[in-house]
Amino acid sequence: MGASDRIEPQPPELASPWRTQARAALQAEARAFAHDVVLPLADELDRQKAEMPRSLIAAMAEKGWFGLTIPQEHGGMGLGVFEYCLVSEELARAWLSVGSILARGQGLGTQTLDPERRAALMRRSAKGDWIGSISLSEPGAGSDLAGVQTRAVRDGDVWVLTGRKRWAGFAEGADFIEVLARTREPEDGESRSAGLEPFLVVKERGTFPAGITARVIDKIGYHGFRTFELDLDGVRVPESDRLTGLYGDQGADADSGGFAAVQRGLNIARVHTAARAVGVARAAVEDTQAYLQEREQFGHKIGDFQALRFALADMAAEVAQARAFWQQVAHLLDQGEPAESESAMVKLLATEMAVRVTNQAMQLHGGNGYTTERRVERYWRDARLTTIFEGTSEIQRRIISDRMLPRA
Which CATH number fits domain 3-113+120-126: 1.20.58.340, 3.40.1190.20, 1.10.540.10, 1.10.10.10? Predict the structure, then answer.
């Protein structure tokens, strides 16, 4: 890696009204961890398409970050969406997948029917001892989750799951997999999502349970953990492992039922994606800022050329704009606002921004940007995914426009 690729922890950028002493300290801690611990691992392992080590996950668990949004009475930090996204932006600046692994805690896989078991799993989640994978999509159902066809058939006190799932990240290393399945067909007048329920498939780390066959999906980026297509053939799940909601969101109504309880979790996931996209784009800006002061052409540092200086200025402005927006929407969610349109907007704008900024960063690096000798190609590959997962840009535009205009 060249000298331009070394990042240094920067002063906290939180501005009023979001800045508090506690948030600034949390941000500084996460930024130093990303720089000192995550970045060297990313430099070594990403090019190998390797998984992040369990020691890294354990170090994050030691800091309590898997319980950022879990109430203190369950062993968590009792913080909000804002702090969750704040830490994730800093970690994603070093390696996108590390900013993402936080979502595998935060109470995911805890919303069981038994309140006592729910509380016990919540404590495990807060400690980083209950880290999961979430499996919603299928080969024929991605953006249209209501099209899920995986079946859950009741057999006494057990549900039998059969179908094919796709894009199950971290499924092998997880303690459980949340699976969205159809228990019945919608009746006349019901929503297409009627009959969809989430189920908890408990498993051992490093293996898959009986009835699941897994195939690794070979991605071009987003390395750090592997992503799978799963074939479920008679996977047996006890009724006690039918869940009341997804994502483990502590602000959701635990009794609101399967698919209906997903929406707030999806909104949080969109803001989380926006924060991660900002982290990746910020990485591209910081590395480009250093590179323009390192590279010489025509007897000058290339940072002396106005066209390149102005390009960098535009990149930095776009990142700052997207950061301010995710902070605003995270605040709305923490205040209990649904913020569905705002969540879609910030996901759309921040991720599209990340693609533009990382692309421009590669251009400003010239030929050096098109090598694995510099980190900028990693940022570009990872940024490209952010416009796709957690709902494509087209889906976000549909959400926004449907709330602005009546249907014909």
Answer: 1.10.540.10
- Residue that the structure tokens 């929503």 belong to: 191
pLDDT values of the chain reduced to their tens digit, one per residue, 408 residues = 544 444 454 545 666 678 899 999 999 999 999 999 999 999 999 999 999 999 999 999 999 999 999 999 999 999 999 999 999 999 999 999 999 999 999 999 999 999 999 999 999 999 999 999 999 999 998 888 888 999 999 999 999 999 999 999 999 999 999 999 999 998 888 888 888 999 999 999 999 999 999 999 999 999 999 999 999 999 999 999 999 876 655 444 444 444 545 678 889 999 999 999 999 999 999 999 999 999 989 999 999 999 999 999 999 999 999 999 999 999 999 999 989 999 999 999 999 999 999 999 999 999 999 999 999 999 999 999 999 999 999 999 999 999 999 876
Start-end of CATH 1.20.140.10 domains in the chain = 262-402
Q: Note the CATH number of domain 262-402.
A: 1.20.140.10
CA separation, residue 236 to residues 212, 214, 229, 244, 402 (Å): 10, 17, 19, 18, 39
Q: Cβ(212)–Cβ(35) under 8 Å?
A: no
- CATH 1.10.540.10 in the chain, residue ranges: 3-113+120-126
Q: Where are the alpha helices (DSSP H) in 34-114?
A: 39-45, 54-62, 81-94, 96-101
- Which residue has tokens 């668990």? 61
324: enclosing H helix or E strand: helix 306-334
For domain 130-257, give the fold. Answer: Butyryl-CoA Dehydrogenase, subunit A; domain 2 (2.40.110)
Residues recognised as catalytic? 390
